[in-house]
Specification:
Blueprint lengths: L1 H31 L2 H13 L8 E2 L10 H19 L3 E2 L2 E2 L7 H8 L5 H15 L5 H13 L11 H15 L9 E6 L1 H15 L8 E6 L3 H5 L9 E6 L10 H4 L7 E7 L11 H13 L4 E5 L12 H4 L4 E6 L1 H4 L7 E6 L3 H7 L3 H11 L11 H8 L13 H18 L6 H21 L13 E5 H9 L1 H10 L2 H12 L1 E2 L1 E2 L9 E5 L5 H22 L3 H4 L1
Parallel strand pairs: 1-12, 5-6, 5-7, 7-8, 8-9
Antiparallel strand pairs: 2-3, 4-10, 9-10, 11-14, 13-14
Length: 555
């Protein structure tokens, strides 16, 4: 009998261990699957949710607003450019090409200062001429040809006047007083994602990052960026430079200290961060500069797509231009995710060019052969131009570059801000965009009963909510223990979607702490965020019933 009991006890222990192992394996699998793949499945569940509620999808990062002014201006500029083309040929639907002679005078005659769109275009051209020092006829000829799209981009990297306009925009919005516009090269790309792919490809191809090299990643972070170091043939080893809620999602000094190791070849971050939506403090920027003094070959990649949503923001590029590659996308601020427009910016004196000069001779010989088909002097080819060439496998360098109509649209978005910046006035569009996400953030946090972070560093484009902490605070530890024992975090998100029609994103998929969810404040209205909170509490009430915990006891 005693042996049977021992055997039963052993079997029970084995089954318990197996169940625990299965749960741990499931948790590990959750962390390996991309957060976006997990959310896609929950969107399908939400469509047929048990409660019959309208779907509230707070997983999407694209905003539910657009910049109308730049779109009207694009259409008007296209119309003007077609008229210029028809001046040289207009027969059977066939037009010619714009001529530069007298184009400035014809533009002035064609624009109606009483029309808001025409008035904006006139102000934008005046700013380019009088503030940026561009030649009026040359500018208008470039814009006319570019918006029509009848030439390859020349130069391939960026149209000359576009580069001046984009540099002025970056300086006005991201540099916080640093004067870098005249020393910065710009490569417009098909969004920020393409920019990252191009950069990693060029770093690898040019032997600046080699298999086995360490790359540091500021976590939590946008999920696909964590997956880059291990994909394809890069073979990089990533280490976390973590921020925490306890440090208000800023990077602690001991984490920055990891970057002092010369074995760390590159550091990637999103600033303000995704999903935590916090900008690095000035103290952290200063500490990062100290780390670079000890590791001067460190290559920093910063994605600043949310920079305009944080007050008094300064890019890492502004603080460390020699070491930093800047990526920016217009997608979030201006509601242009479908346009796929972003850019790469680098200082004309930068760490990548210096490292190229110091490569072993075998690597230099290899790269000379590679780039000799597009330049007579491969050794002098800057890294940024190599990024452009590599984006088209070098051989198609002459057809590389972002489409010229897309470059014009970027010009118009940038100029919609610069016309105010030049007058020293606040941009009402950016102010409205910031106020919009701030109001939604406040509505959500109030409905959840959580303390708001109103600091200037909080962009409030997303927020991370610790569901475990919320459950313990509102329902007590007994329900928290039941939830952690009976449900995985994916189970909870599946229930929220399948029962209540709410889609949130899995926090650990961004390397955020267990129990967290990312909520986008960009794509729903304030009342929707209050409703998300109501449905979340409704699900937790149901969990109390399933766990046999009375609501009075839970409270």
């Amino acid at each position: 009998m005693k042996c049977i009991l021992c055997l039963a006890l052993a079997l029970c222990m084995l089954l318990t261990a197996a169940a625990f192992a299965d749960q741990e394996a499931e948790k590990q699998l959750e962390k390996e699957i991309g957060a976006f793949e997990i959310t896609a499945e929950q969107r399908e569940k939400a469509k047929a949710n048990e409660a019959g509620y309208p779907v509230l999808d707070a997983g999407r990062g694209n905003p539910n607003w657009i910049n109308a002014q730049a779109r009207y201006a694009f259409i008007r500029l296209m119309e003007y450019a077609i008229g210029e083309s028809e001046r040289t040929l207009n027969e059977g639907g066939m037009a010619g090409q714009a001529k530069i002679e007298g184009i400035g005078e014809r533009f002035d005659a064609a624009m109606d200062p009483e029309n808001p769109t025409d008035a904006f275009l006139m102000a934008a051209v005046d700013l380019c001429v009088n503030t940026l020092g561009l030649d009026k006829d040359g500018l208008l000829k470039e814009l006319a040809d570019a918006v029509i799209g009848d030439y390859y981009p020349v130069p391939s990297r960026c149209l000359p006047n576009t580069e001046a306009i984009l540099n002025a925009f970056l300086q006005a919005t991201l540099y916080d007083g640093a004067d870098l516009a005249g020393r910065t090269g710009v490569f417009p790309t098909e969004g920020g994602s393409a920019a990252m792919v191009y950069i990693f490809e060029a770093l690898s191809h040019n032997r600046l990052l080699k298999p086995g090299d360490q790359i540091a990643i500021a976590t939590p972070i946008f999920t696909p960026y964590m997956q880059i170091p291990s994909v394809k043939d890069y073979g990089l080893v990533s280490i976390d430079v973590s921020s925490t809620a306890e440090n208000n999602w800023d990077i602690a000094e001991e984490e920055i200290a990891k970057l002092e190791d010369p074995g760390v070849k590159a550091f990637f971050l999103v600033n303000p961060s995704n999903p935590a939506s916090r900008a690095l403090s000035k103290n952290t920027l200063a500490r990062l500069a100290q780390a670079v003094e000890k590791n001067p070959d460190l290559i920093i990649l910063t994605d600043d797509v949310y920079g305009t949503f944080a007050e008094e923001f300064q890019s890492v590029y502004a603080a460390l231009p020699f070491n930093t590659i800047l990526v920016y996308s217009f997608s979030k601020l201006y509601g242009v995710t479908g346009w796929r427009i972003g850019l790469i910016a680098m200082h004309d004196q930068n760490v990548c060019d210096r490292l190229l000069r110091g490569l072993p001779e075998t690597d230099k010989n290899y790269l000379r052969d590679e780039y000799a088909i597009v330049t007579a002097d491969p050794d002098s080819m800057p890294f940024l131009d190599r990024v452009v060439a590599d984006s088209r496998s070098i051989g198609l360098y002459h057809t590389s570059g972002l489409s010229t109509p897309s470059q014009v649209f970027m010009d118009l978005l940038a100029l919609s801000h610069l016309v105010y910046a030049a007058r020293g006035e606040e941009d009402p569009y950016i102010r409205l965009a910031n106020d919009t996400v701030h109001a939604r953030y406040a509505a959500l946090m109030d409905a959840l009963g959580l303390e708001k972070d109103e600091s200037e560093a909080n962009a409030q484009y997303y927020t991370l909510v610790d569901v475990y902490a919320l459950v313990e605070a509102e329902y007590g530890r007994e329900l928290l223990q039941w939830l952690q024992t009976e449900k995985t975090e994916i189970d909870f998100l599946n229930d929220l979607a399948g029962r209540k029609g709410v889609v949130l994103m899995y926090g650990p998929g961004f390397s955020a702490p267990d129990g967290t969810v990312r909520i986008s404040l960009a794509n729903l209205n304030a009342e929707d965020y209050r409703e998300i909170a109501r449905r979340l509490f409704e699900l937790l009430d149901e969990y109390c019933e399933e766990a046999g915990i009375g609501l009075a006891d839970a409270a």
